[in-house]
Write a structure and sequence with these properties.
With 186 residues, the chain is an alpha+beta fold. The protein has 1 helix and 11 strands. 22% of the residues lie in helices and 39% in strands. A hairpin with a 2-residue loop joins β3 and β4.
Length: 186
């Protein structure tokens, strides 16, 4: 065997080996990013919290901490709850002469039926229902937001549009923007 042939063959093998390592590194980086983007939504639900703020039209002075009157936020499908977060208390505060805010931090019960299901299953929600127990029966909601966090790493923001409450209940049915990040999960 010619020594130059062996040397050339070694260079070719080293070149192909280096090329394989480079392609492997690029592939690992690219597909790793894909997995990271999807993985949080496939985790099983262990915890869920929601911070909800609702601004209503109110001329009453409502600066109160309601210790025994809280509320809830529920994700509903086919008129059955997929997931419920609740609190036994809420705060109310007058913003100006014409409006006040209801605020609470809701938590999911450790025995909720959503425990153990993948986070992405909540994208099946038909509508979201919110209720604050001390809120007047027929209130005019001016604005609001609900920020929900699942397993401390998946966050969704829900804008609450102006509406009249129905038996103290607030409904959000336009959810197309709420679950945009969930679309990546298959």
């Amino acid at each position: 065997m010619d020594p130059n042939f062996g040397k050339t063959l070694s260079y070719i093998i080293v070149f192909f080996g280096t090329l394989c390592v480079l392609l492997g590194s690029i592939g690992t980086y690219y597909f790793g990013k894909q997995v990271e983007a999807i993985a949080p939504y496939k985790q099983k639900i262990r915890t869920a919290t929601a911070t909800v703020n609702i601004v209503i039209k109110s001329k009453d002075t409502i600066d109160v901490l309601h210790i025994n009157e809280g509320g809830y936020i529920a994700f509903i499908k086919d008129n059955k709850p997929l997931l419920i977060m609740a609190s036994p208390q809420c705060n109310t505060k007058q913003i100006d002469k014409e409006s006040g805010i209801y605020r609470a931090i809701f938590n999911m019960d450790a025995k909720d039926s959503a425990i153990g299901k993948p986070i992405y299953f909540i994208r099946e929600t038909d509508f979201i229902q919110i209720e604050f127990l001390p809120m007047p029966e027929k209130s005019k909601v001016l604005s609001g937001e609900a920020i929900c966090t699942f397993n401390n790493n998946v966050r969704i923001e829900i804008n609450i549009l102006p509406q009249e409450t129905k038996e103290k209940k607030i409904f959000i049915s336009d959810l197309k923007d709420v679950f945009l990040e969930f679309v990546k999960v298959k």
